[in-house]
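Example 3.2
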Amino acid sequence: MPLPNPVISAFFLEASVGQRFCLLHQPPAGQAVLGQVIYVHPFAEELNAARRMAALQARALAKAGFVVLQMDLLGCGDSTGDFADASWNTWLQDLALAQRWMHQHWPGQLWWWGLRAGSLLAAQACRANTVPAHLLLWQPVLLGKQHLNQFLRLQMAGDIVRGEPSRGTAPLAQLLAQGESVEVAGYRVSGALAQGMAEADLEGLPAGSQIICLELGSPAEDGGGLSPALSGQIQRWQQAGCTGTAHLAEGAAFWQMQECPDSDAWVHTSLKALQAASARGLP
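Structure, written as tokens:
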């Protein structure tokens, strides 16, 4: 017999500046709440490309008993403002708002679910709380500076498509470092946003934190395996007193493509991991 559908509602949360659009996925009526999940979306166009997979995961978690909040950060989606208005700090303030709202309305352990650059924001939100945290990270960006540089290279690709001389990333990086805004691939990025991202990483999580990572790949017996970069990050977490585990998920790089086949392995693996953690009664 199929499980009843979750309850999905849309609303706006009042922020210090404007409103933030939210989607709340609740377990079916009468079902016990296993915990809370706050989704932290990725950067720029990756947000739009990943919307369907994020929705599939949120519904699956809600069916299983988790309350899932998806918030569009300042200047993103249906929230107040333009992308140019955003800074790294305002996005962190949005996450603090989401956390307060969830704690006021729902019981259970909070999980931060970050996708790509959303993992950096989720980790920084956890450091601000100073207590052991629980994170589910999808294809996490390990270094914000590297992610920013990759984003700036989109401007180089645009120059080539237009038949213009490539300006490289150095002039854009210099403008951002001076606090100016630049436009890349249709997104105007403020200096404050770029500088905050460039300083972000996944280190310094409170001791006792649990981190579950999913990375695109295939099992070692099929010629795949975990990337050396993520393996090294997990070792550093463990040396710092945290519990870090990783799972390989087959499928496509859905955060890079607007039209992409569903990658069911991500949904099933994440659901199984959070259900197991809930059953163990993590503090």
